[in-house]
Amino acid sequence: MESTAAVCYNICGHFIGLIYNINAPAKSQLMLCIKYDHREKGRFAMKVTFKHLTKRFPNRNKKLDDVIAVNDFDFEIPDGKLVGLLGPSGCGKSTALNLICGLETPTSGSIFFDDDDVTTLAPEKRGVGMVFQNYALYPHLTAKQNIVFPLENLKGKDKLSKEEMNNKALEAARLVQIEELLERKPSQMSGGQQQRVAIARALVKMPRVLLLDEPLSNLDARLRLQTREEIRRIQNETKITTIFVTHDQEEAMSISDYIIVMKKGVVNQIGKPQDVYDNPVNLFVAKFLGTPPINVFEGNIQSGRLYLGEDCVKECPSLKDGKVWVGIRPEGFVLTENGCLHCDLKAVEVMGRDTSIVAKHPALVSNAMDTSLQNGKAVDTLRAIIDSDDAKGVSTRFTFDIKSNKLFLFDYETEMRIDEK
């Protein structure tokens, strides 16, 4: 049986052999491949389509039902885009990635690369590149040798000369800006440099689809920011369809063309990052996206008006009376003398341009992601982000007005978004 490391390196397959038959100097072949994508759209920038894809795992407790890691995926990832697969730990993100590259076999459903059904295709024949959380570099090999490694496995008509492999490794290294590190071993490189080597190794064979499984989680804050900008740059240059798995919503929103928000194996929402943030379909998505997180209140609709505690904050003439969950983004508060929401000051946190006002309100509930709101312990703290100039001289008792586009209503039982139209 192949080692995990060997499987990781081999899943790019021999698809690249078709590319490098182009009559061009070896030094420029990688960039020719990138340009080739624009001449024949879809050849190398592949759309990925899931058709009712499901993956079940047997429960360790045989008395319980199977664990559904991926539940009825039925959507399309556009070609040439960077898509963030986002959700809390255990939601099925990595399983979805393993299904795409062939390391897991689906229980039911299909996966297509463009019009090709790859559901049962061997990993090495899918033309997929994968970058893992722990880099998976060979410690005894130099950066150059690590990058060249997948090219050494090519056979038959796809086999390359040593000079061709070295040229391709150099081009991949230039793409991720590590050409001066090629003679170093992993122990002589920083975490960010090792991650770039791993990306170069995945790109050297110009995969049809690039998969990144939490590639930034082992880096410190500054390196995470720097490396995610590099991933965005590389994807923009190569136009390879890229799927980026992370539980960090800030990472996903900052570099993705689209995000897919998952919970317990189910896709909750797909869209452009700002669209999903501005229009969450349910309370889970609203709470998962945003730093600081959304403020969640227990509200009541009475006679066409929305009340938070004793404060009437909104007219809702089209909605029937009853309890609702109310979410207000931290940037949705406006500090004013005669506002609709009455609060008591708890703390002021100056963050430079903006100021965070931490306040009390009796209608607030728990924001813990792993606790259902119905069972959440009531708390009385909200967090508002306002301009530092507006926060000067805030009193211990004050009021907010609320921006209507930053306030969302959710059904009290289902937690689905309520359309007020």
Strand content: 25-35%
Q: Stretches where pLDDT falls below 50 for ≥5 residues?
A: 1-43, 367-378
Structural class: alpha+beta
- Compute the number of strand runs: 20
Number of helical segments? 11
Shape: globular
Instruction: Provide the spatial order of strands within the biggest beta sheet.
Output: 6-7-8-3-9-10
Main β-sheet description: 6 strands, mixed
Distance between the termini: 59 Å
The oligomeric state is: single chain
Radius of gyration: 25 Å
* Secondary structure: helix percent: 10-25%
Mean pLDDT: 84
List keywords for this structure.
29% strand; globular; single chain; 421 residues
How would the blueprint of this fold be written?
Blueprint: H1 4-10, H2 16-19, H3 29-39, E1 48-57, E2 67-77, E3 82-86, H4 93-101, E4 108-113, E5 116-117, E6 128-131, H5 143-152, H6 162-175, H7 191-203, E7 209-213, H8 221-238, E8 241-246, H9 249-255, E9 258-263, E10 266-271, H10 273-278, H11 283-288, E11 295-302, E12 305-308, E13 311-315, E14 322-328, E15 333-336, E16 341-350, E17 354-360, E18 381-387, E19 397-402, E20 407-411
Parallel strand pairs: 3-8, 3-9, 6-7, 7-8
Antiparallel strand pairs: 1-2, 1-4, 4-5, 9-10, 11-12, 11-14, 12-13, 14-20, 15-19, 16-17, 16-19, 17-18
